[in-house]
Amino acid sequence: MKVLVTVKEVAAVEDEFQIAGTSIDETYLEYDLNEWDDYAVEEAVQLQEAGIADEVVAVTIGPERSEETIRMALAKGADRAVRIWDDALEGADLLDVGAKTAILEKVVEEEDPDIVLSGVQADDDGFGATGVSLADALGYEWAAVVNHLDQDSVESGTASVRRELEGGVEELTDVELPAVLTIQTGINEPRYASLRGIRQAQRKEIAPKTLGDLGLDAAAVENELELTDMYEPETESDATYFEGGPDEAAGQLADLLREKGVGAQ
Amino acid sequence: MDFTLPDEHRMIREEVRRFCDEEIEPIAQEIEDEHRFPEEIFDQLADLDVMGVPISEEYGGLGGDTLMYAVVAEELGRVSGSVALSYVAHTSLASKPIELFGTEAQKERWLTPLASGEYLGGWALTEPSSGSDASDMDTTAEKSEARSASERSGAAAEKDGDEWVLNGTKQFITNANVAGSVLVKAVTDPGEGYGGISTFIVDPEEDDGFEVTTVWDKMGLNASPTCEIKLTDVRVPEDRMLGERGDGWEQTKKTLDGGRISIAAISTGLAQGAYEAAKEYSTEREQFGQPISKFDAIRDKVVDMDRKIERARLLTHKSAWQYDQGQSVTRSSSLAKLDASEAAREVAEEAVQTLGGYGYTEDFSPQRFYRDAKLMEIGEGTSEIQHLVIGRELGL
């Protein structure tokens, strides 16, 4: 059984930074593996350690710099990686869900995995849609926001998962493989990479591929979205302290909520 | 000339740092307060292949170089001097000499469990009345006829032959009460001076007559045990002698060449930890309507810290690199140790000062770095001895 994990290098800004137009200068950015993807990698490696998966392949869309981050997935146990980059991608301000789906769809067709694990969302752009969109394009089944995966079920060709819904509600569901699961944080406890793992990862393959290699051209990744502005939202804090006993305080809270529009018809 | 760390080293630094921040830093003060050796941390470090970084893979180590080892030691020092000190004593003093001077059989029996982190190791040179004048030791090893096999202690008892009987007291021995093996220096040939010292592998658990008589309470580094040990007729078979009879002092000098890089690396880490605490505080703490880092007095302190740390790290990495090139490191490791240990004490002191009253409390880390840093100017050759070593290297 083959597991494909989509991983992304995300940028985080330092405490103090400056925005220039629609970008933030490199000096203020730190790059790291997307938090959700770290959990997806761990889940894949656990499937491998349980003898269920034979191969774990990490795939990423990113420039050469991102190899350092992607290599951490290899250090934790992924067998090899595929990295897609292209001049057409270099020039793009923003890669929307459609573009990522088009690229990853080709990679999945080439690799033919039994399960695709993808982080629920990326820490930076946070669309939270790539995994499900990919499943849709491939005609795969999917489960989004998975916070538990029954490993034994995977072996029998059906993934029994627990999904997180809104308001603390969870759903137990089965999806037929091949499928895409978007992985929620907390599904496992991502390991530290061992130093031996890090050393071995230096020799593992990260295969670079262009759009052309995947049979795509620049048109495939043309964006519907355009980045028009970037600004830091004003932060404001507004605390109200209610004096008096419970009855009085409850009354004041009710007034405030009504005033803010809660419960308005 | 390339000053960037190789990718592999950088990745290792990042992951070790993450481990240190998440697993060690939160308990760093607590283990000092409790004077507790954090066994669980060393178990985890063993799982992550940290315990044998510069030891060959053949014997359970990582097969990394000295530069990689220095990077790891610095990261440990950045959060806990105690963990770092026990780690480097284990690695450069207790493990490395077995790799350098041991027989194949000794490496398999004694190095593999150390390098794989099954247990920690110790190294015993100093004595109550022999510190800087280290070769003037009173611990003796006398050859004796073998007793019957059943009487002998230890796993090596099956080998027939003579035994060595060790007697003496060793002082300030890191890890002695948690170690699975201790390398003990003893006089085998009185009157031969430097050439009369030999090294023995002693098993604290199995060898009768090995006793930890004191675990010292110290100014700092209290989560790293520092012990006095007493050897009373400790009988070990011949195959416990490390290297040749009379090689003990030459081995010691080579061991301390690497040991000084270890202390330099920890010192750089202590300074880095103190600096980070001071820098963070100075940009958050406001007085007279602005962050105190905006005042020249505090800015200059923090800038000086950065300068001293950069210098200490460069010297340390250069010496580690030279070691990896097979070059002599006597001068460079001594310079690194001397400079980094002073930098650590100075930076930590200024970090305490930067935090003012808070810096003097145990709720903040600078006081811990200050306490820990002081030992770096004393252990593995005092600063005064480093001057002596460097003076000799300069032909003075």
| Oligomer designation | heterodimer
Mean pLDDT of chain A: 92
Mean of residue pLDDT values of chain B: 95
**What is the number of independent domains of chain A?**
2
Strand element count of chain B: 10
Q: Spell out the CATH superfamily of the largest domain in chain A.
A: HUPs
One letter per element, helices H and strands E, the order of chain B comes to HHHHHHEEEEEEEEHEEHHHH
CATH domain fold name of the largest domain in chain A: Rossmann fold
Global geometry of chain B: globular
CATH class of the largest domain in chain B: Mainly Alpha
Number of helices of chain B: 11
Q: What is the strand tally of chain A?
A: 13
Protein name (chain B): Acyl-CoA dehydrogenase
GO molecular function (chain B): acyl-CoA dehydrogenase activity; flavin adenine dinucleotide binding
Cofactor (chain B): FAD
InterPro entries (chain B): Acyl-CoA_DH_CS, Acyl-CoA_Oxase/DH_mid-dom, Acyl-CoA_Oxase/DH_mid-dom_sf, AcylCo_DH-like_C, AcylCo_DH/oxidase_C, AcylCoA_DH/ox_N, AcylCoA_DH/ox_N_sf, AcylCoA_DH/oxidase_NM_dom_sf
Could you please describe the fold and organization of this structure?
The complex is a heterodimer of chains A (265) and B (396). With 265 residues, chain A is an alpha/beta fold. Chain A has 2 domains: 220 residues, HUPs (Rossmann fold), CATH 3.40.50; 31 residues. Chain A is built from 8 helices and 13 strands. In chain A, the strands form 3 sheets. In chain A, strands 11-10-9-12-8-1-6-7-13 form a 9-stranded mixed beta sheet, with helices on both faces. In chain A, strand 10 and strand 11 form a beta hairpin. The mean pLDDT of chain A is 92. With 396 residues, chain B is an alpha+beta fold. Chain B has 3 domains: 114 residues, Butyryl-Coa Dehydrogenase, subunit A, domain 1; 126 residues, Butyryl-CoA Dehydrogenase, subunit A, domain 2, CATH 2.40.110; 144 residues, Butyryl-CoA Dehydrogenase, subunit A, domain 3 (Up-down Bundle). Helices cover 50% and strands 15% of the residues of chain B. In chain B, strands 1-4-5-8 form a 4-stranded mixed beta sheet, with helices on one face. In chain B, strands 2-3-7-6 form a 4-stranded antiparallel beta sheet, covered by helices on one side. In chain B, a hairpin with a 2-residue loop joins strand 9 and strand 10. Chain A: Belongs to the ETF beta-subunit/FixA family. Chain A: This is Electron transfer flavoprotein beta subunit. Chain A: Keywords: Electron transport, Transport.
